[in-house]
Amino acid sequence: MSHNSFGHLFRVTTWGESHGPALGCVVDGCPPGIPLTAEEVQVWLDQRRPGQGKFVTQRQEPDAVKILSGVFEDDRTDGQVTTGTPISMLIENVDQRSRDYSEIATQFRPGHADYTYFAKYGVRDYRGGGRASARETAARVAAGAVARKVIPGVTIRAAVTQIGPHAIDRSRFDWDQRHENGFWCPDAQTVPIWEEHLEKVRKAGSSTGAIVEVEAVGVPPGWGAPVYGKLDSELAAALMSINAAKGVEIGAGFAAAAFSGEENADEMRMGNDGQPLFLSNSAGGILGGISSGQPVVARVAFKPTSSILTLRRSLNEAGEEIDLRTKGRHDPCVGIRAVPVVEAMTACVLADAFLRHRAQTGGAVFVPGR
Amino acid sequence: MSHNSFGHLFRVTTWGESHGPALGCVVDGCPPGIPLTAEEVQVWLDQRRPGQGKFVTQRQEPDAVKILSGVFEDDRTDGQVTTGTPISMLIENVDQRSRDYSEIATQFRPGHADYTYFAKYGVRDYRGGGRASARETAARVAAGAVARKVIPGVTIRAAVTQIGPHAIDRSRFDWDQRHENGFWCPDAQTVPIWEEHLEKVRKAGSSTGAIVEVEAVGVPPGWGAPVYGKLDSELAAALMSINAAKGVEIGAGFAAAAFSGEENADEMRMGNDGQPLFLSNSAGGILGGISSGQPVVARVAFKPTSSILTLRRSLNEAGEEIDLRTKGRHDPCVGIRAVPVVEAMTACVLADAFLRHRAQTGGAVFVPGR
Amino acid sequence: MSHNSFGHLFRVTTWGESHGPALGCVVDGCPPGIPLTAEEVQVWLDQRRPGQGKFVTQRQEPDAVKILSGVFEDDRTDGQVTTGTPISMLIENVDQRSRDYSEIATQFRPGHADYTYFAKYGVRDYRGGGRASARETAARVAAGAVARKVIPGVTIRAAVTQIGPHAIDRSRFDWDQRHENGFWCPDAQTVPIWEEHLEKVRKAGSSTGAIVEVEAVGVPPGWGAPVYGKLDSELAAALMSINAAKGVEIGAGFAAAAFSGEENADEMRMGNDGQPLFLSNSAGGILGGISSGQPVVARVAFKPTSSILTLRRSLNEAGEEIDLRTKGRHDPCVGIRAVPVVEAMTACVLADAFLRHRAQTGGAVFVPGR
Amino acid sequence: MSHNSFGHLFRVTTWGESHGPALGCVVDGCPPGIPLTAEEVQVWLDQRRPGQGKFVTQRQEPDAVKILSGVFEDDRTDGQVTTGTPISMLIENVDQRSRDYSEIATQFRPGHADYTYFAKYGVRDYRGGGRASARETAARVAAGAVARKVIPGVTIRAAVTQIGPHAIDRSRFDWDQRHENGFWCPDAQTVPIWEEHLEKVRKAGSSTGAIVEVEAVGVPPGWGAPVYGKLDSELAAALMSINAAKGVEIGAGFAAAAFSGEENADEMRMGNDGQPLFLSNSAGGILGGISSGQPVVARVAFKPTSSILTLRRSLNEAGEEIDLRTKGRHDPCVGIRAVPVVEAMTACVLADAFLRHRAQTGGAVFVPGR
């Protein structure tokens, strides 16, 4: 219910502004007895960390996470484990560069949340975007690291499939490739195209959008629930809540609008393992809001970074018309750094769906023929 | 939290199966003193009603709504008004054709929720799709009718902008046109193209997808909230929960991925009315999860109806491989009938956002220069 | 969250006014596959039904419940079973005596919710108390009937332990006795005392309070959760929400304030069944908000019925000072008829706690020494 | 929904264990623009702080609170103010005396949550009671400090009215007195009686229970809502969630069970200020779950501290029967230190009720005769 929490049983609350002393999250509802250390969480945070290439912001943040509660270790536990009580994680803000914010303090940067925060609250922490900063997503990644441990049988991975107008060639999709370049690109031949595009964008002081695709393999049938707790509905909310997200689709998504019924309705056969097998996955692993056992597939569209050097017409708090350009350290393409965030949000949604499913049914899956 | 409810303060719970005695909803949290009659709700239900053309299902349902609670009238009220207590609305199922369901009772129709309901629950009301039937959306439309009255200054309207591969020409977009044809089509010249396409689809026993666009005009700045209660996040969840929805986008949506920063960042000027004015609306009326005062614009992709006459490979509950075709009364394009549902869900989300905004801030908007 | 719902996973929403066409509830989140018929629900409703003695209201309501959704039966199910989808239950209001309400329409009956509903909403259905009527509790009893079937190993039973100043003698407490009299009295020797007291009260046109005690036997250790989802906290909210409830206590309750630490801290031994055994139950079966395996024991204090024939000073909507007496068909002691309601609310809280526990932990209990 | 959060719109999430590095809370949904400093919060924490007398635990904790987010200050704000985003507050644990916990690590202290945490989770942080420690209430007090600022017109104050078997004489009730002694006692003549009682208890290594009474003056009519969001229901849940609470009553509470209808139904007259005036307040300021404008009055019963030096029979994790005495630094009467916690929880519930009321109705109150 609250504005800064999500999830029902695996519930995440985040807090913190870009230039406050720290940011963090509280994860409530995590099952007990799960091995969990700060180092394990750090692995995922390191993937999201800025300052790792010329196409991402140069802000230097170690993003070192501390676990303040909810874990315990003694000689009878399997190392440090969760206790079932709330897991509080904290990340200090270190590199809040002491710059002069007086200029943007009263100005509304086009495409930013500056104006809407002003209109709603009357007051806002304008330094670095305050609560609307992408720094908030560090807390999501920390929560996602915990979520992954709740559903160890599920593998969640995301990649960038389009930057600006340049989409990958899906016939060359190779998950292993995404770690071989700075763009999470699963298609080696697209990498130089993106490099050239981003270089042009960066030099122009402009920015560009992107699309991120995520898949979760190993989700058993039965997660999610009709009709407002649908798994796709929960995923859509979670992914759309990421900064700069403008669209979410499941499986074939918008392409399904042009499909015929034959293309859409994934046929079924019995697999060698005695489990139902779908011959295609237009549905993206979700039917009627419930997982089908196929990979859950979603895609998120990210708009270009709003902070650009081009002079843009705007207003200030006094209601005066102004022209402004947004300086500062900014990614030209926020979609790239969103990849670990998309994974984290997917993990949290699935962990929550797992717990809800276990609550209502005990967690068993009915298998045809058994 | 519960699976069959949505909204936080304006909260809607729906219940009912396709072939049960009735379906309905409970709307809780509605403000008191709002004039509301069953006739007003019926207006919207009549728009959703099947049996109104050859491209929609021939099931004949009057969908007559009764209001069972939450309203009152005496000589001091402005006709029948809401009391602030839960509004229970009921729609009887009348035309549950007494057919033989024995065939599909144990079979999984490809593209349907048959298999996933079985896998999750072990038992399901297979008659007409049970809870997964689009009949459930009648309850949403009833709730939406109440929601509209909570935010009388907001106009919500939707249209179909694509059927199959045939998109409208946006330069001819005319909201008035959508009532002039059976497709909610806002572009008169596209109507014959869709007619021809649907006729072909119908004759082939196939089906086709569609895209529905909705806009809400008159939403003041300030509705929605960071960072998981974002207005776009709430909209995405609500729209994705509609039967057959596979994608949701806000404003420029997926197209924004190909945008430059300049195209994306809507510039601002002061309007003649002393209110900020955006020179474009790529954002779809939402920045940082909070409404900007521009029209809120969203689009939903619907997959083709899964019920097709073509023989498809599948399984039954015994785990046997079967071939089946889905008979029965079905829309070849569920996207058309989804239009009033998309409007209703948007209305509910906005009514909820209005109440939440009023709770936290008192409801006032900060205007630059005042 | 919503005002007229309770429970988190086993979630109950009720609706309806005393003199509207019907009242009912929607139970969402019920596990699938549980045999459930309207007849089974009716058994509990019949216990709550008014018109069963001279000390309860003479309103004649059959309170016949219909199940409108969420159940299904075919030749493969164990009779009619739950499907995991929302269970909508409806009870028609039959005996809404066509009396003249013009007198109380604008008057505030002392002790009633008349004034507070007016102050909050400005409009209210004053007929029979509207939403504040004890008729609403019929919906709770229906929901409780479902809840009991979710936790079949738990036996829930309540009794009246005090009426007016007359408490039972606990040394004579005999659960079997409560069905032998019209007061749910577990102490046969107290029955004539209450009869005399109530006769006096009735003749005086007055009313009297009562205390109801409930116990749930068979609750395993582990239900409930720190620190705001404590089982006692949930029970307190649920029981305090019953009409006329003014106090709730768990185990020794208020008496514990006078206890020494030795009296309070229930000692433990290992039982013959290999399960921990407490040598006393001051805690009422709950420690740290989590069930201990001992019987869960709670007590609820009910104020006297506010409707009395004695002339009382009050106000009307015009702000005028008036004197009024409340006529109509009223129980002199609402506590008596609250017994099935107390049981029902306890059942709902426990069913919810069971599901939440199963979600987080899988449902197993850790047993010392295993 | 989550276990460690409460409130709906003014939502508090707490985290932390007794002997972890820190504890804290996140307050979400607070209105923007409210002046708030750490110093203001500290004032209330100092009232709860242990180590302030011989009848409270000797653990020395400065309980210095830091506000990590949700506030902002520049030359245009009224000092440091809330921004409407989540307020994260952190209190470091300083005096975690490095003692040997090996003894109790596997033992269940009677009356504690040791056994139930073990049974539920299998693992627990046994140091100082872990999550079940009363240290958690520091976070509640911090949240309550914020809540008070949301409803500045409401005065909330609590006092101890009974310790062990010794109740105050209500005819001598004087709120000013409660600051004149170490017991929050509003009756000067009772102070020496309690001193003697507690000295005896302390010397015996025993403990004693208590009752705390809280009142909130200045709550306007209209807060709270039927029928499961009743103000008394919310209060009951909040107060019962405090460590060692075993009972909650509103207004006359359990005494109302012995009342006649005449005693119970508070009569009304019009006050000199044109507002309705009740001639008594048996209802404790709440009718039908909605505030009446009278002081909201509640009482909480606390059991004796479970940690006593007397040898008690118990079990250990191996299932062995043991005898144990609980050493350590413990209050003989937890009820005393609960006073600021009772106030804080009441403040949080009322702030939440205020926001919910404003959401549904706009916040206005209907006054008879206007």
TrEMBL record, chains A, B, C, D:
Q: Cofactors per UniProt?
A: FMNH2
- Report the catalytic activity: 5-O-(1-carboxyvinyl)-3-phosphoshikimate = chorismate + phosphate
Give the superkingdom in one word: Bacteria
Binding-site positions, FMN: 131-133, 243-244, 288, 303-307, 329
EC top class, in one word? lyase
Residue ranges annotated as coiled coil are: none
Xref: InterPro entries:
Chorismate_synth, Chorismate_synth_AroC_sf, Chorismate_synthase_CS
Residue sites binding NADP(+) per the record: 48, 54
Q: Does the keyword Flavoprotein apply?
A: yes
- GO molecular function term, any single one: chorismate synthase activity
- Keyword annotations from UniProtKB, A to Z: Amino-acid biosynthesis, Aromatic amino acid biosynthesis, FAD, Flavoprotein, FMN, Lyase, NADP
Q: How is the cofactor bound?
A: Reduced FMN (FMNH(2)).
- One short Pfam name that applies is Chorismate_synt
What EC number(s) would the UniProt record show?
4.2.3.5
Pathway assigned in UniProt: Metabolic intermediate biosynthesis; chorismate biosynthesis; chorismate from D-erythrose 4-phosphate and phosphoenolpyruvate: step 7/7
Please give the subunit comment from the record.
Answer: Homotetramer.
Function description: This reaction introduces a second double bond into the aromatic ring system.
Sorted alphabetically, which HAMAP family does this protein's record hold? Chorismate_synth
Q: Which family does it belong to?
A: Belongs to the chorismate synthase family.
Put simply, this protein is called: Chorismate synthase
